[in-house]
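In response to the reviewer comment on reproducibility (Comment 2.3), we provide here a single inverse folding case reported in full, input and output, so that an independent group could reproduce the run without further information from us. The structure tokens appear first.
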């Protein structure tokens, strides 16, 4: 007698409810068929990029939920969701290292089939770039509504722990974005070189320039201000 729990009850394709719910038949058919690959490493290339897009889609979704919670003044939930988003972004960074195992010569074979496709066009990364300033605006609105500055919530972090925690999680997110940019640059330099043109006609050095962008510069600069003030105090004490 077949165990009833082994029979799928959800609609869709697949021998099990797991396959039907996750639509694994469709998901696993999105890669180029193995007999049509330009190079055996092309499958890895596609899987890494598709996995990264899914993870960045998830991170963007959680950051938007965090933004809504922040607007509503629900700081603990906002921080929790940002923490989840940042955890998701750990993996696209790690996945870049898998691509480092593709040799420059083999990549040129794969590259011939990419057209003008470029990581600069990543929908997932672009969605994260879009949500980042909106989070910043929501955060600044919360500070303004309470008559606070960033220095207040850091100097008196126990008193304003909720907003302080949100600020720290914003930095986590910004740091992950910067790390992704850095490792993407090093991957490009490692595979196609630092002085060449990418698939979209963009020089690799442009990636270096884009690394200078940060989402929450005031939060980073605040560290400089705190340290500068402490250094000045130390000098006045010893003089």
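Designed residues, in position order:
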């Amino acid at each position: 007698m077949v165990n009833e729990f082994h029979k799928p009850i959800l609609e869709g394709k697949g021998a099990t409810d797991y396959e039907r719910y996750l639509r694994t038949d469709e998901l696993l058919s999105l890669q180029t068929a193995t007999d049509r690959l330009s190079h055996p490493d092309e499958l890895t290339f596609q899987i890494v990029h598709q996995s990264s897009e899914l993870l960045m889609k998830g991170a963007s979704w959680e950051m938007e939920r965090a933004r809504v919670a922040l607007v509503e003044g629900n700081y603990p939930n906002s921080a929790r969701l940002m923490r989840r988003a940042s955890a998701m972004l750990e993996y696209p960074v790690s996945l870049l290292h898998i691509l480092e195992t593709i040799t420059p010569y083999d990549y040129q074979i794969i590259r011939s089939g990419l057209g003008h496709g470029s990581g600069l066009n990543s929908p997932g990364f672009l969605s994260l770039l879009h949500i980042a300033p909106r989070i910043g605006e929501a955060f600044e609105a919360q500070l303004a509504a309470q008559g606070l500055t960033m220095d207040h919530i850091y100097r008196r972090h126990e008193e304003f722990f909720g907003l302080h925690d949100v600020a720290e999680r914003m930095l986590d997110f910004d740091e992950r974005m910067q790390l992704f940019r850095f490792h993407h640059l090093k991957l490009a330099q490692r595979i196609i070189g630092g002085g060449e043109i990418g698939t979209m006609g963009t020089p690799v050095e442009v990636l270096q320039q884009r690394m200078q962008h940060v989402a929450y510069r005031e939060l980073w600069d605040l560290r400089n201000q705190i340290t500068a003030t402490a250094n000045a105090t130390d000098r006045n004490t010893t003089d």
